[in-house]
Structures
1.
Amino acid sequence: MRSGDVLARMVVPSLKLQDLIEEIRGAKTQAQEREVIQKECAQIRASFRDGDPLQRHRQLAKLLYVHMLGYPAHFGQMECLKLIASPRFTDKRVGYLGAMLLLDERHDAHLLITNSIKNDLSQGIQPVQGLALCTLSTMGSAEMCRDLATEVEKLLLQPSPYVRKKAVLTAVHMIRKDPELSSVFLPPCAKLLHERHHGILLGTTTLITELCERNPAALRHFRKVVPQLVQILRTLVTTGYSTEHSICGVSDPFLQVQILRLLRILGRNHEESSEAMNDLLAQVATNTDTSRNAGNAVLLETVLTIMDIHSAAGLRVLAVNILGRFLLNNDKNIRYVALTSLLRLVQSDHNAVQRHRSTVVECLQETDASLSRRALELSLALVNSSNVRAMMQELQAFLESCPPDLRADCASGILLAAERFAPSKRWHIDTILHVLTTAGTHVRDDAVANLTQLIGEAQELHAYSVRRLYSALAEDISQQPLAQVAAWCIGEYGDLLLEGNCEEIEPFRVEEEEVLALLEKLLQSHLSLPATRGYAITALMKLSTRLRGDNNRIRQVVSIYGSCVDIELQQRAVEYNVLFQKYDHMRAAILEKMPLVDRSDSQVVEERKENKAGAQLLEAAAPVPTEPQAAKLLDLLDLLDDTPGHAQHLPPLAPSPGEALVHLLDLPCVPPPPAPIPSLRVFERDGVQLDLSFVRPLETPGLLLVTATTTNSSKEDATHFICQAAVPKSFQMQLQAPSGDTIPAQGGLPVTQLFRILNPNKATLRLKLRLTYNHFGQPVQEIFEVDNLPVETWQ
C-alpha cells in the first residue's frame, strides 16, 4: 500500500501556476511553504532536463514566481535564453521576463542574448520589439548598449508611437551606461521634440536631460531648443496638452516637471537662455493651482529653476514667497522641502528669506525631528548683526526643550553665531553662560577656552563674570564645561568675588569658607571629570594668594590629592605641595593673574610647545620595524580610532662652529630653502575641493607637514565638515584640529588642517582620507585613498 502511494506521488503531474500560488498561500508555516517549493522546484528541474518545448514557458513562469518569493532560481537562466530564441511569442514573453528578473551584469550569461535582442529589434513585430527594448533598458550592460545602439537609434524614428516610446527610454538607459554614445542619439532628439504623444515627449525630455548632464557638447547643442521647450511648457500651462494626463486640474504635471528640470540645466550659467525663460517661469509660478499636491510639485520645480538660473531679482523674491507659503502647508513633506530650499537660498537672497523668519522659527517646535533639524539649520543661517538678540532668545528657548539629538547642534550653532555677531562682550558672556548652564555637556570642546579668553579680555566684566559663574556653579555642578570655566574664573578673580562691589547684578555676600567649600565639593563629586578636578585644584592654589584668611585648609586639600589615582591630578598636587613647602616666597609671583594673550599669539605659542614636545619624543623614539607589504595599509576603521599615533618632531641641532661664528657677528644665518613640493588636488565634488600642500623641514628629513586646504565654490555652505586621515603602520601621524567645521560658500575663507607625518624608514607614503559634511541639505561621506603623492614627500 505504501509503495503504491509512493508510485502515485511520482506520477503526479506538475502543478499549474495558479494551483502553485494557492498551495503556497495555503501553507500555515514556513516549513510547509519550503516543502511545497522544494518539491515543485524538483519537478521544474526534471521538466527542464526532459526538454519539453511546450512546457518550458509554463515551468519558467512558476520558477519566476518562486524567485519573487526570495527562493533561489538561478538554474532557470539558460532556459530564459532558449525561450528568447524561440519563434513563438508566448515563449519570448516569458523568456524576456525571466531575463529581466534572473540576469544582470554580474552574470556573463546576459551577453548571450545580445544576438537574440538584435534579431528581434530588426523584425517588424511591434510586441516583440517592445519586449526586447524593455529587457535591454532593464539589464543591458555597457557592452550590450554599445553593440545595440545603432538598432535602437533606427527605432527612434519608427512610425509606431509604441515602439518609439520604448526606444527613447532604452536610449536613456544607454546614455547612463555609456555617455560616449551621446553622439548617436543627438540627431533624433530634435525631431522627437515635435511629437504630440505624451510618452514620447516625456521620454525625449528625459533623454535630452541625461545628454546635457553628461556631455558639455550636448549642453551647448540643446541650448538652441530653449524657445521650443518654452513654447511647449506655455501650451501646457495655458491651453492644456491632453485631458487624460491632467491630475487634479493640473495639466500633465509630470511633463511640466521634466521640462522645468531641463530648462534649469540649460539656463544655468547662461544669460541668454535664462532671459528666454524668465517670463514663462513667472507665468507658471502665478497660475499654478496650489490646492493640490500636483500643483505644489510643479511650483517646487519652478522655484528650483528660478534659483539656479540667471533670473531677475523680482522673480527670485517670488520664488522665496512661494517657499514661504509652503511653510504654512499642513503637509510635513512640503514644509520640509520648503525649509531645504530656503536653506539653499539664504546665501544668495538673504533679505528675501529674512521676511519669513518668524515662520521658520515656528517650525522649530515641530514634533518631527527632520523638520526641527532643518528649521534649526535655517534659523542659524538667518542670524545677523541686526536680529542677533531676537534670534538668540528664540534659539535659547528651543535649546531648553529640544530633543537630545539636536542639542549639540543647537548649542554649537548658538556659540558660533554669538561669537560672530555679539553686540557687546557682556551679552556674549551671558549667552555662553546660558548655553553652558542649559546644555553644557553638548557644547564643542573649544567652548571652555573661548569663554576664558573672552572673560580675560573683558577687564571691566571680571567682577560680573565671576559672580555669575559662582552662582551658576553653586546651583549645578554637573555641567562640566560650566564647572571648568567657573573654577578657572574663581581662581583668577576670587578676590573680586569676595569684595562684592559689582553694581550690575543684585549684591550678595560670599564668604571665603563658602568659596573653598564649593571647590572642595567640585573636587569630591563623582560627576567631575579629571580635567574639571585639575581646574578646581589649580583654583584652590590660586586662591591661596588672593584670600586674606589662613591657607591651612587649602594646604590640607592639596596634600590629600598628592596620592590621587589620577596621575595628572597627583602631579599637580605634588608640585603645589612643593611650592608651599620649599618655594613659598615665590608662590605669590608664580600664581599671579593670567596675562592677556592675543588669539594669534596664543596659536604661535601652542605651535612652539608642540614642536618642543615632539622634539623630546623623537629623541626617545626607537626605530620602527618594517611591516610586510600586505599589512602596511590598515583598514580605515582601524586607523581612524580615537588613539592616533603621536606626532614626532626633530630635536634642535647643535650649531656648527661656522654657525656659531655667524651668530657672534650678528649676521643672519638662513639655510638654503628646500625645493618646493608640488601641491596635489585629491578631492572635488559639487564645488567642494580638497588640496594637499607639503613641507619637509630641513632639520627633520623624516618629518612631513601636510596642510589640507578645503575650499567651497558652490552657492551653499558645507557644514559639519570633518577630515580624517590614516597612514600605514610604519608611519606615525598626528592630526591637528581644523580651523573650522564650516566651509563658506562662493570661495570664502578655506578650512585648513595640519597633518604631521613621521616616516623614519622613508617608505612609500599613502594616505587614506575620510570626509564627512553636509552640503545642499544632504549628508556626504567620501572614503578614498591617495597613492599618487609626489616622490619628494617620502624620499
2.
Amino acid sequence: MDCYTANWNPLGDSAFYRKYELYSMDWDLKEELRDCLVAAAPYGGPIALLRNPWRKEKAASVRPVLDIYSASGMPLASLLWKSGPVVSLGWSAEEELLCVQEDGAVLVYGLHGDFRRHFSMGNEVLQNRVLDARIFHTEFGSGVAILTGAHRFTLSANVGDLKLRRMPEVPGLQSAPSCWTALCQDRVAHILLAVGPDLYLLDHAACSAVTPPGLAPGVSSFLQMAVSFTYRHLALFTDTGYIWMGTASLKEKLCEFNCNIRAPPKQMVWCSRPRSKERAVVVAWERRLMVVGDASESIQFVLDEDSYLVPELDGVRIFSRSTHEFLHEVPVASEEIFKIASMAPGALLLEAQKEYEKESQKADEYLREIQELGQLTQAVQQCIEAAGHEHQPDMQKSLLRAASFGKCFLDRFPPDSFVHMCQDLRVLNAVRDYHIGIPLTYSQYKQLTIQVLLDRLVLRRLYPLAIQICEYLRLPEVQGVSRILAHWACYKVQQKDVSDEDVARAINQKLGDTPGVSYSDIAARAYGCGRTELAIKLLEYEPRSGEQVPLLLKMKRSKLALSKAIESGDTDLVFTVLLHLKNELNRGDFFMTLRNQPMALSLYRQFCKHQELETLKDLYNQDDNHQELGSFHIRASYAAEERIEGRVAALQTAADAFYKAKNEFAAKATEDQMRLLRLQRRLEDELGGQFLDLSLHDTVTTLILGGHNKRAEQLARDFRIPDKRLWWLKLTALADLEDWEELEKFSKSKKSPIGYLPFVEICMKQHNKYEAKKYASRVGPEQKVKALLLVGDVAQAADVAIEHRNEAELSLVLSHCTGATDGATADKIQRARAQAQKK
C-alpha cells in the first residue's frame, strides 16, 4: 500500500494530489513548445501545434507548419500554413480547430487537417488587427473573444451561430491589459480584464470596475488569471506573488496563497474535480510546477522540459516533448482504500481478497471484521468506485476482484453497478490505448457520454473500434452500429482513388439493409464531393423514393427523378418533380418529356384543369387531341365568357374540334346548344324573363308556365322533342299552375302518348282528387286498378281486379284495405281467390 501511495502528495490535511504518466510521447518535435502556438482539446482531445515563424525574425521567410496529434503523440495531420499570421489556436466542443488570424478571420479545420469553413470577426477587427484571442466554451457552444489593436473587445458566444458583440470601451485604456479572460455567468459571456491594480468586467451593456474581496494590499498589477473548467471559480496572480482564489462572480473569497515568486507564470489553471475536498490552482513557470490551495504549504514539481497545461473536468493534463501526465486530486474512494494504515471497509476487503488468493486464514478474519461492522456493502461499493478512478488495468482488476469477492457474501447486492463498471472500464482501456490516444478518466467519460465518445471515434475514423464498443454495450442499432456505418460510408465516398462502382458495391455489401441507414444521406455526401455518378448508384439502394427524388432534382437529373417518382406511386412526389421540370425546361422539351410518361401527363393535366387552363389547351393542341380540346372549349365557354357572342364563338370552336375528332354526336349537340343560346337570347328580348342558360326542357317548361304554349310547341318541333317528353313537360307545368281547365283541354286534344295514369298521379300530387277521378275512368285496363287505388276507390278497384282475375292486382287491392271500412271488400276478394283456387 505504501508503495502505491508513493506519488501521493498531501495538500493541507484533507486532500492528496497525485501525478501519473498517461503516455510516453513519441512525436518528433523539431522545435520547443515555447516556440509554437499550442492548443489541446479537453476530454483527452487532440493537440495542435503551429510552428510559429512570426515570433522569430530570422525565420520569417519559412512557411509555418500546422501539426495535429492525438493525446498520445500519434500524428493525425500536417499541413503547410498558406494563410495569414495566426494569433491564437483553440478547439471547439466538436473538436474542430479554430485558427484566429491577425486580420480577424477565423479558419476552421477538421481533426485530419481538412478545411471546413471560415468566418470573420467583423470590419473593426479587420481594420485594427488582432492583438490576442481566446477560445472558450459555453452551454451554447464554443465562443471566440478578440482583443483588437484599438484595445476593444469583440466576441461571439457561439461560432456555430455567429452573432458578434462589440463590448463596451474600458475608460482610459491606452495599452493592452496585463491579462484578461472570458467568463460565463448567468448564460451570458463576459470579459474580465486587468489594467494595473484595477479589474473591469465587460458585459453587453456596460463596463464595471470590480474588486476581489479580501485581496492582500500592495497589489499594483495582476499578471495572470484563470477560470475553472466549469466557470464557477477564478484565480488571480498578482505582482506581489499572491494567488487569490474565489468565485467567478468576485463576491466570495475562497483562499489566498503567497507563493513568494513574483515572476509572471507561463500558465495558471484550476485543478479540481466534482465534489472536491480541496480546490487547487496549478501554476507553471519554465522549470517549476506548483499546486496551491487553502493550505499553508504547496505541492511543487520540477519540470525537466518545456511543458503545457490542459485543464480538465477533474484535473490537469501536462504534456512535454517526452511525456504526457495527469495531475488530479485523489478520489475519496481511492484515498480510503489505499492510504497508509487505512481501516476503511474497502481497504479491509481488498486485503481479504489478497489473503484469500494466498489461501490464508487472514482472509476470513478481515471479512468477519467487515461483517461485524455491517459495512460489507459499503466495502464492495468503495472497491467498485475506486476501480473506476484507476488508470492501470492491473489495479482495476485487483479492485474489481475484491468487489466480486465481497459480493459473494451478500444476499441481495444489485449487480448493476459492478457490471456497468466492468463495461465502462473495458471501453476506457480501449480508447486509452496508445494507438487510439484518448486518455479519458471515468468522470470525464460519464460527463461526455458514450454517444459523444462514439462520435469522437468516428471523427478519428476508428470505425472498427466504435462498432466493437457498440456491439459490446449492446446499443440499439440506430444509435450505434447503423450510425457508425453511415459515417463510414460517408468517409468511403471521399476516397477518390477508388472507382464509383467499387465504392458503391463496397458500401452496399457492408450496409445491406441495416436499419437506420439512409443511402440518400450517403449519396448527398458523394454529390457534395463532386461524385455525381456515385451518388446515382447509391440512390439505387435507397428504398424510399421520397428520399431519392429530392437529391436527384438537386443533381439536375430531373428525368430520372420523374421516373423514380412515378415508380413510387406517390402523386405528391410526381407533382413536385413536374413543377421542378416546368421551371427547368423550356416549354417544348417539357411537353415532350410528358409525352413519354403517360402517368405524369395525366397527373399534369389534372393539375392544369384546376390551375393552368391555357397550358392544358396547349397540351391538347400539341397532342392533336381534338376530342379533349372540344371539351375544353365547351367548359371555357361557360367559365370564361359572359357575352353571348363569345360563348357561341367558343362553342363553334368546340364543334369544329369535335368534327375533327369525328365525333358527330358531340358536334351536333354543340351546334344545338348554339341554336338554343341564340333562341334564348331572342326570347329574353321579346318576352322578358330569364331564359339564358336554361336547359331545353326548362326553356319549354318556362314558356308553358308563362302561357306561351304555341311558342313551347314550336320550340319542341324545332328541337325534335319527342311527343311523350313534351306531354310530360306540359302536364307537369299545367299542374304546377293548377290550370285544370287547360289541362283537361290538353288531355282531350288527342290521344295521350303517355296514357292517362300520369294525369291521375299529377293531380293527386297536387291533392286534387276531383280532377284525378276524371282521368281515372280513361286509364287503360292494365293500369285501371292502380288509378282507382290512387283516387281512393278501393271497392271499384276490387271489382276490376276480380274481373281481371289477376293475383297481383288482388294482392295490391287487399294491401289497401283497412279493417274498419273495407272489411266487406276484403271478404269479397278472399271469396274470389277461393273460387279461383277451386277451379
3.
Amino acid sequence: MKTRTRHRGKEGERRRPAKGRKPPGGKLLRTRVMRRVKKSQTKGKKEAERHPKRRKRSRIRRRREETVKGKKGRVKLFPFSSSSSSSEGDEDSLSEGEIAALKEQVEEKKKLIATLRNKPWRMKRRLVMLKEAQEFVEKFEGALGKGKGRKLYAYKVMMTKKLIKFKRDFENFKTACIPWERKIKEVESHFGSSVASYFIFLRWMYGLNLVLFGFMFGLVVLPEVLMGLPYGSIARKTVPRAEQDSAMDFSVLFDFGGYCKYSFLFYGYYNNERTIGLLQFRLPLSYLLVGVGIFGYSLMVVIRTMARNANEGGDGGDEGEFTFSWKMFTSWDYLIGNPETADNKYASITTSFKESIVDEQENQKDENIHLRRFLRVLANVMILCCLGGSGYLIYFVVKRSQEFAEMDNDDLSWFEKNEVEFVMSLLGLVCPPLFETIAELEDYHPRIALKWQLGRIFALFLGNLYTFLFALFDEVTAKLEREKSIKNATEWALNQYYANYSSFYNTTNVPPPDVHPSDVVRGPCWETGVGIEFVKLIVSDVQVSYLTILIGDFARAVIVRFLNYCWCWDLEAGFPSYGEFDISGNVLGLVFNQGMIWMGAFYAPGLVGLNVLRLLTSMYYQCWAVMACNVPHERVFKASRSNNFYMGLLLLVLFLSLLPVVYTIMTLPPSFDCGPFSGQEKMYDVVMETIDQDLPAFIGNIFTYATNPGLIMPAVLLMVLAIYYLNTVSKGYQQANLDLKRKMQMARDEEKNRRNNKDSTNEVMKDLEDLLPNKSLIPPPIEEEPPPVEKNSKSTKTKPGSAGKGVNLQKEVSLAAPNPRGPVTRAPGARGRPPGNPRGPQPGPGRSRGRGAPPRY
C-alpha cells in the first residue's frame, strides 16, 4: 500500500494538501495514528530502561491511551495526553484533513446520540451504541480544541456544554419552585391520582386567588390606605358613638362588627372623591374596574386551562370498544408507591375484570334492566326532595334572621345570631353523605358515580347560595327604603339649619354644621351588610370544615387505632373503620367557596386576602389529615387526564356569580353616605363621568354608539350565529373522525381475515352475498394442481404451527385464499414436510433415518 510521506517546511510545519485532492482519512488516517502510537510506545520503553523509577509513569501513560471501537470491529487509537510532551507534538502534527475527518466523526456521534430513540434497535444495542458514542464525543471533542487555530472551536464546545447544563439546571430549579410538589407526589403515591387531583386543583385555586388578591390589594386597598383620609376623619371611617363601648369585644369582632365593620375590609370604608393623593388616583373608577376585571381575568384563566386540558385528551379510546384491552394495558396507576394502595388497586382491577366479564355475558339479557331503571329514578326523586327541602329551609332561616335584625342584640342568643351560617354549613355537611348513600342504589362505575355526586352536591350548594341571595336581596330592598327615609330626614335637617343660620346672621356664607363624625346620622349601608354576610359564610364554612376533619377523621382514626384491641368486633374491617378521603365533597367545597369569593369581593375587598389564607392553611391541614387519618379507597381508580369536569363546574359558578354583581352595578342605587359610589344614581355612572370629563369628545361618542341597543342586539345575534356555525363545523369534524375510524377498523379486520384465511367481516358485503339467489353470482373456487416436486429440490416453506393442518404455503404464493364457502371437491394436497423446526435441517439425501450414507465431515 502506498502512503504519502509528510513534507515539512523549514519551520517544521506541514504543507497543506493541494486543491481538489481529498484530505487523508480512513485507512491512511488509521495508519498514521498507529505509527504514532508505536513510536510513543517505543519511546516510553527506552525511557523506562534508562530510568526505572519512571516505569510507573509509563504504565499510567499507556493506560491513558484512548481506545475507540470503529465500524466493523476496527480499533482507532489516539494517544492524546496533556501530560506528555511527545503526544502534544503528535497532536500538532495532525493535518487539516485529519482534523476535519475527526470533527465529522464527532458530529456523526452527536447526531446518533440525538436520534437514538428513533432507531428501530433492541434496547441492548441502543445502550451499547449510546455508551460508545458518548465516550467518543467526551474524549475527542476536547482534543479538537488543542493547537493553533482551534481555540474558537473549543470555546464553542465548552459554551454549548455549559448552556445545556444551565438549561437542565434551570428546568430542575423551576420544578423545585413549584409549591407543594413533594407533598402532592407523596399523597399521589399513597392514594392514587384521583385524590392527588384534588390537591392539584387546590394549588391551582391558590395561584388564581393570589393574582386576584394582587389586583384588589394593589389597586384598591393600598391606594386608600396610603393616600386616602385617615381613620376618624369622616363618618364612614369612624365607629358610631353608641357602638364605641363594645367595638373591641371579642363577640362583636367575631361577628365582624365594631372596628372590623369600619375598616378597609368592607365597601363602606372607601371614600367617594374622584381623585386622591398627590398622584390624583381615581379610586372609584379603579374600584369598579377591578371589581369587574376580577371576573374577566378569572374567565380568561379558566377557559385557557380548559383548552389546555382538552388538548391533552381524555382517557383514550371509546368505552364500548376493546374494553378488555383498555383495562389490561391502561388500568394501572403508575404513580402509586404505597404497598397498601397497590394491593387495593390490584384488587380493584381484578374486580373490574370480573364485572366486565359479567356485563358482557348479561348484555343480551334484560332481566334486571327495569329494576335498575326504577332504582335510579327513585334515587333521583329522593335527591330532588332533599334539594327542595334544603332550599326551603335556607329561605325560612334568612326570613327569620330579618325579623331578628329588628330586635335588640342583647335579647338574642348565639344560635339566633348565627342561625343562617350554621344551617348552611350543616346542610353542606349532612347532605353529601346522604347523597352518597342514596347513590348506592344506582350502581354506577366509580368515575361516573363521582361525576353524578359532584353534580348533585353542586346543585345543592348552588341552590343554597341562590336561595340565600334571593332572601338577602329582599333584606337589601328593605334597607334601601330605610336609607331613603334617613336621607330625606338628613336633607330636611340640613336645609333647616342653613335657613335658620342665614336668617339669624343675615348672611349667605353658611359654614357646615360642627358635628363630630361619630355623631353623624348614617344609613344602614347595605353593601357593607352584604359583604359581612359573605365573610361570615366563608369563616363559618372554614370552621365547620376543619372541625369535621378533626372530629370525623382524626378522632375516628384514634378510636379505631387504639380501641380495636379491646372491642367486641374488628373496628378496622367493620364499623366505623378508617375514613376515606371525600373527593367530591372537597372539590365542590372549593368551587362553592370560590363562587362566594367572586360574589363577595365586590362588597368586601378584604375577602380575597382571607381566602388566600384559607387555601394556604387548607393545603397543609388537609395533607396532614389525609396522610395521617385516611386510608386509600377500596376501588382505586385513575383520575382522568383532563380535569375539564372540575373546570366546567368552576366556569358555571363563575357565570352564576357574575349575575348578582352585574345586577347590583346596573340596577340598584348605591348608599348615599358610604362607599366609593355614594352620590351617584347608579354605580356605572362613574365610568360615564370619567368619559365626559377626562377623555376627548369623540371617545364619548364612540361609547354612546357602542351602548346603543340598536348595535348591541345585532352584535349578540351575530355572536350566536357564529357560535352555532362553529358548533356545527365541530360536529361535522367529529362525525368525519368517527367515519374514518370505522373505515380504518373495517380495513384492519379485512386485512386480518385475508391473513387468517377467514370469511369477510364486512357486514355490507355479507348482506349483499346473502341477497343473491343460491349465491349463483359468486365465482366457484379455482382448483389449482399442486406443482410437481423434484427429488433434489428444496421442500416448500410452511408456516410454523400450521404444518399439521395441510396448509402448503410457498414463497411466492399470496396468503389470501379464495372464499372457503364453496364446496370441497378435492382431497387436501400432500404435506410439504413433516412438522418440526422450520429453521432446522431438512431431510434429504444422506439425512434420512436409517437410509443413505453417513454425512461427510
4.
Amino acid sequence: SLWPTPSLAIKSCYVKVYTLKDEQQWVILGTGYISSTYEEGAQAMFLLVRSKSDDSLILESKINPDMYYEKDGTLIFWFEAENRGTAIHFQDTAICHKVWKAICQVHSKAPCVEMIHDLMDESEAKEGDDSPKTSELPDLPNCELGKLGEIVDLVTLGLTSPVDKEILALLLEREDYIQKLLQLFHTCENLEYTEGLYHLHEIIKGILFLDNTSLFEILFSGECIMDVVGCLEYDPALAQPKRHREFLTQNANFREVIPITDSEIRQKIHQTYRVQYIHDILLPTPSKFQDNILSNLTSFIFFNKVELVNMLQEDDEYLAEVFAQMRDKTTDDDKRRDLVFFLKEFCVFSHLLHSESKCALFTTLTELGILPALKIVMGMDDLQIRSAATDILADLVKYTPFIVQRFMMDEAQQSEDGKLFTNLIIEKMICDTDPELGGAVHLMRLLRALLDPDSMLPTHRKCKRSEFLNFFYRHCIHNFTAPLLSATSEDICEEDNTVGSDKNNKNCFNNYQTAELLALILELLTFCVQRHTYYIKTYILRKDLLRRVLILLNSKHTFLVLCALRFMRRMIGLKDELCNFYMIEGNLFKPVVNALLDNGTQYNMLNSAIIELFEYIREENITSLVAHIVEEFYETLESIEYVQTFKGLKIKYEEQKYRNNQLWKNLYPVQYSKIFCRGASVLKHKEEKSFKENIEEGKAGMSSSESDFQDHYDKSVETEKAKENEDKVDLPPKTSLGGSEVTSFHSASEASGAGNPNDSSMVDLVDFSDDNKEDKEGDPPPRKKLHLKHLNPNLSHVNL
C-alpha cells in the first residue's frame, strides 16, 4: 500500500465537528484535534477527531472516493444521505486546505506519501505547489471596464464543475480582486455605463453561486456588502433597477430597544440582516432539485445567528435591562412592544442552537426574570404583544417546563393580589375575541404542554409530578371549566329550549364561537382523563361533570357533539369501576342512546363514534356496563341490525348471567352449611349459659348435701362438655325451600311444641326480598339477598 501506517495528530490546530439532523439543522458534536489513520484491512484513509478535554473519539470518518465533498473557506462538509451530513470547521486555514488536498487526492485515486506528510506537517511544501489539478482556465483578466465581458465568461465557465469552482475561488481571493471589481461598479454608476453594470451583476451573482465561505467573508464585510447589493440591483431582466440600497439604509431602520454598546454585536446584527436580505430577496429561489446550491450561504447565516445569540447571552446586563424595562409600570406600550418583539426574535434565533444549549439559554433567561415580565405583557390588550409573548412562553415551556411550573406554584404562595399566571393564561384563552379562536388554540396547547406528566421531572428536587397537578386542580381547574358549567347550567338549558337557535346568544352552546371554545375545553379535559386519572376522576365525580358534558349532545354543531362523546369514551377506557358505577347510577348512557336514535339511519361520524363506544364495551367485556346497557336499553336498540354490536352485548350479558347462576348454585349449600353450624353453636351456648344461671340462683337455699351434689354435678357437666367438644358437631337435617336444599334448625323449646313465635329461641332463618319472582330459567337470581334474622346482629344478611 502507498499509505503510511503511522498516524500523527495536528496538535497545533483544533476543529469543531457538526452533524446535520433530520430537522435540517446543524448540531455541534464537539471540539477537538484532528488526526488521520490508515487501516490496512479497509485499504482506506480515515479522519479522526478526538476531544481536547478527555481525548474521547468525536468523529471517525472514512474518506470515501465515491462521496461528494465540498469545501468553503475553513469548512469541509459532506452528506452521507439526503438529510444526514457532517461538517468540520477548522481554526487554521492552512490545515483546512491540506486536509482538502488529501480528500481531493483520494478522489483522484492517486495517493502518495508526500500528500500525507503535507497533511500532518505544517512545515511541508508551499500551498501553491499542492494546488489540485483542474481543467485549463486562463488567468483572470485585469479589472478594467473593457475586460468585464471576459470576466463574465470566465466566471460562467468556473461554475461548470466543483473543481473549477474551487480554482476560481482561489484566484478571486488574490490581490483584492473582488475589491477592485466593486471599485469598477462605482465608476460604471458615475458614468451611467449600463452595459458594464449588467456585466457586474452577472459577475457578482456568479461569485455568490460559487458558494465559498472565504469569498463570503470578503463580499459581506462592512466595506463591500452595500456595493454587492448595488451590483445586484442592475438585473438585465428588469426594465428599471430596484432600489435595494435605499430600502436597506432608509426604510429598514435598525431600532435599538436598549442601546448596544458592543460594536462587534452591532456589526454582526447589520451583517446578518443584510446577508439574509440578499439570500431571500436578491438571489433567485432555487428549485427543489437545487436545495443545496447555496448551502454554504445558508450556513454562513446560520453561524452568524448562533454567534449573535451566544454574544447576547453572555451579556447578562443587557438582557437584565430588557426584562427590567418590561416589568417597569412606567414603560409605555410602544416601548414594551419593541422589547417583546426583540425578545421574540432573539428566541427565534435560539432555535438554531443545540438542544442542550437551548435549555441552558432559557434557564438563563428565567434566572434573569423573564417570567414576571411575560406575565405583565400577557395581561395587555394588544393582540400583537400578547401573541409574541405567548410564542416566547411556549419556547420556555418546551425547553424548561419544570422551571415554568415551579414559578407558577411559587406564585400561589407569594402572590399578594391572588392573580396567578396560570389563571391569566386561562382567562385570555376564554376571552379570545378572534372568531376562529387562533389565540385560544395556542394557549390551550401551551396549557396541555404544562399539564403533560412527561414534562414533570419525577426526580427533580424542586418539582415533583404530583405537586404541579395538585396546584392546578386546587387553584385553576374551576376557572378552566367555568364556561362549560355555565353553558350547561339548568337556566341556560331551559333558555335554549326557547331561544337555542339564536346565534347571538353567547351563553348558548349553539353559538358557533362558544361551541369552538367548549370543544377546546373538552379536548384538554379529555387529555386530562387520559393522563391525570386520579385527579380528574375526583373532579368529575365531585362536579357531576360527565352529566354536564352530555348535555352538549343536544348541540347542533357535530364537532362539539363528537368532543362530548370522545370525553365519555375516554372515561370508559379507564375501566374504572367507580366511574362505571357513576355512569350507571346517573343513567348517563341514556343521552347517548337518544343521540343514536335521533341520528336515525344516517351513516356519519356521529353514528360511527357511538357504535364504536358500545363496541368497545362489548370487546373489553366491561360486565357492569354490559349488564346496565342490556337491562335498560336492549329493547330500544334491538332493532339496530346493520351492526352486530348490540346482539353481541346481549350474548355477553347472557354468558355472564349463566356464570353467575352456576356460581350461585355451587356456593349456596356451602355458605348455608357454614351459617347454620355457626347458628347452632350460638344457640347451644345460650342454652347452657341460661341453665347455669338457673342453677346459680338456687345455690343460696341449698343444704350442705345439696351443695356437695351440686359440686359433683358441675364437675360431671364440665366433663361431658369437654367430651362433646371432641366429637364432631352433627348438623341438623336439610329441608327443601323453593327448589333448593336449605338446612333448618329448631331449638329445644320448638321441638317440644311450647315455643312462642316471638320468643328469641325461635329462628327465622331465611327471608328473600323477592321470593315470589322466579328467573325465566328457573334458577335463583344471582343478585337476591338472603336475610338471616334473630341469629346474631353480625349475621343480619349475606349477599350471594
